[in-house]
Amino acid sequence: MKDCQEFGLLLNERQKLFDMDIVPYEQLNTLIKEFEPYQNLWIAASDWLKWQEIWMENPLVSFDANQIENMTADIHKAISHCVKIFKENPKMIAIAVTIKDQIEAFKPYIGVIQALRCPGIKNRHFEELNKKTGIQMALTPTLSFKTLLVLNIMKHKETVKTVADTAAKEFLIESTLDKMMTDWKTITMDILPYKDTDKYIMKISDEIITFLDDDLLKTQHLSFSPFKAVFESQIDEWEAKLRLVQEVIALWVEVQKQWMYLEPIFATEDINRLLPAESRKFNTMERNLERIMGNARDCPYVIITCADKILLSTLKECLLILETIKKDLSDYLETKRMIFPRFFFLSNDELLEIIVQSKHIQAIQPYLKKCFENMKELRFENPDLRITRMYSAEYEEVVLRPTIYPEGNVEDWLGQVEDAMRNTLREIIGEALEIIEMTPRKEWVYMWPGQVVLCGGQIHWTAHVEESITNNTLPDYYNYMLLHLEELQKLIRGPQTEVQRLMLEAVMTIEIHAKDVLYKLIQERLININEFEWISQLRYYWIDNKDLKIRAINAEFPYEYEYLGNNGRLVITPLTERCYLTLISALHLKFGGALTGPAGTGKTETTKDLAKVFAIQCVVFNCSDQLNFQSMGKFFKGLASTGAWACFDEFNRINIEVLSVVAHQIMTIQKAQQIRANKFLFEEIELTLKQSCAVFVTMNPGYAGRTELPDNLKALFRPVAMMVPNYALIAEISLFSYGFVDAANLARKISTTFKLSSEQLSTQEHYDFGMYAVKTVIAAAGNLKREQKDLEEDQICLRALKNVNVSKFLKDDLKLFNDIVSDLFPGIIEKPVDYGILETGIRRSIKQMGLEDVDDFVRKVVQLYETTLMRNGLMLVGLTSSGKTEVSDKQLMR
């Protein structure tokens, strides 16, 4: 019929081709439709009879039991459909019902057949079935389900299913174990050459470590299974093997890490000569490691090489040797630090580098800045490498007295450098004071290093103020100081070197404060040098023409002669003075100082500047929650032995557990200071104690992640609350020191600009109108003052304000800012900046990069260039696709 139907369709196509009438052959289609149910019944019945015979008569091992359920369901569905269709045909419905009944009768057998053909069922399971059912059976090539029916297997249906379920669970365990074992047979580690040597290192990828952890977890899950009994010994053995591999890998990585750290150290002849016993230990360990690496190269399979208890014990032995060597090395470095305590401020790696390079004397240069406050370089004269001069970071040159021959160990001759530094400054101060009265000040300031000019001027000022108080001539000396400041300002406006300019700015900052103090004394009508208004000031005294002392209230401190270079001084405001007095009182009583306040209030800078007053090294340390008490202890050893100060910035970020130990460490030092001990025990080590050492901390309360200080730690510090600084006063004194005549008026305008901007402009996360921004504007104004001689002072300040701020403002805020500065600087004509060459270069680069030459984009590049001149770091803020990356492109910036 199908063939006839297809032939009919072909005839219809040909009839269309010849434009003949198309014969529909409707009777054929009707016949096919009527025949279809009979065909379905026939096929379903035939399939059922065939498969039933296979499943019942054939051996169980000869067919797939998993397909029985689906095939039975499909045939049952087809037969059920036939039963509905043939309701009116008794003969056909009788056939359909017969087949359906057979299927219904067969359905209970399906579960038992599938259970008996479960993939995990083994001979042991059939033996168990034999015992429980009493039926003797085994999965042989001849066993059929019909045979089992005869033996009444259906009576034990539930027993068969229970045993089969157990077999399936056991099979899952077995499969998982087999898969893990098979997978690990192919996993290898990488054995790579180490640098340019003939040695090798082992590398295991993170994927393998993750894979190992996952397999260990899987094995643990298997060991918790209630069906593990058959495989218990195998599971335990595999888990032990994986744990051994894990332990070996962890130990191997640690040994290798320690070896890679120590290998370059012991590769040098100097260390082998200095530490012969440790070198021998290291060589022994290295031979063991080379043997292990050789075995790993021959057999890189992880499960074979790493699952070795002998390897584990060898690695443990290697690690023990390495840790012993590290401890011996640390003890050796400790002896170096005890001889030259400033080495405590260097890391072990840095100190080792110095020792390794000890034959190359000049290798010490990069580390001088960490050992001294502001000594960046030493000059070594050929051919004997005699040390004759020291240089600050600003390249101020000071000739050492006496010169030093770097002989012996580095820690010995560095100690001589320290002594020479102190002696040099003491002698130069004495020489400067001898001629200060007879030499015009404008000549005298250029004759000496900046530090000597500052403290010499302070000694001279102290002596003259006390003389004026005694003789009641303070107004006369005040007038002299005004003339002196005018002379200094003329000097700073004239041509000078960078070092001279920095020195003059620092001198003017201090002299302005001295003038203000003098004015205050005149207002108070002082007649006695013991009155509080005078003794509360920092006073410098040159005692017996050989030593400098600093006094404040009832406290006296020695000048420590640490070389400070020429890196400027802090503007002293009433807030700074109060802070100084509190800290000096704390130092006198051998306490520390705790400065608390928001960011930008001068906590750290005030501490550093007070250290400059006493010429003491001040080490600033940025704290974090990663600090431990061992590293803090090392730091405190350095402070106590060198007499330096430490300023722990953001001290309350340290964890509370560490702070409790730190409290005990600081208390130990302070108690030794209070009894004026020269030596004391610190963490079971006897240290030399210098009385000048002190600990200061700064804290920023209210920030996330900050810790409340324990009470026993609070008791060791005198608290100082740092409020918002006086922007106008700081700006005025800074501008005056840069040579501005109308400093007071300009400072008021700058501080008012920031005040109004913070009030009127929108709130943005990247806006900053605090002390940092004010200082940047003042520094920019100072640079413009030196570079743009033809600009008026108002024009300079206006340009500085715009250069610093305009680039960060949003479009609407820029209009408001321009309105603010136009009100504060009325009638000021801005002189346009000529960016001719720069702008031409930018536009050329834009075209080379295939970008559009847009004026706004060019302006942003120029602003970025200007910002890089004023800031050490910067951040580009903007929406996606606003040009941030392109503006900062290397080619464009070049």
TrEMBL record:
Residues 28-432 form the Dynein heavy chain linker domain. It is found in: Cell projection, Cilium; Cytoplasm, Cytoskeleton. Pfam families: AAA_6 (PF12774), DHC_N2 (PF08393). Residues 559-885 form the Dynein heavy chain hydrolytic ATP-binding dynein motor region domain. InterPro entries: AAA_6, DHC, Dynein_2_N, Dynein_AAA1S, Dynein_heavy_linker, Dynein_linker_3, P-loop_NTPase. Keywords: ATP-binding, Cell projection, Cilium, Coiled coil, Cytoplasm, Cytoskeleton, Dynein, Microtubule, Motor protein, Nucleotide-binding. GO terms for biological process: microtubule-based movement. One of its GO terms (molecular function) is dynein light intermediate chain binding. One of its GO terms (cellular component) is cilium. Its main location: other. Belongs to the dynein heavy chain family. This is Dynein heavy chain 1, axonemal.
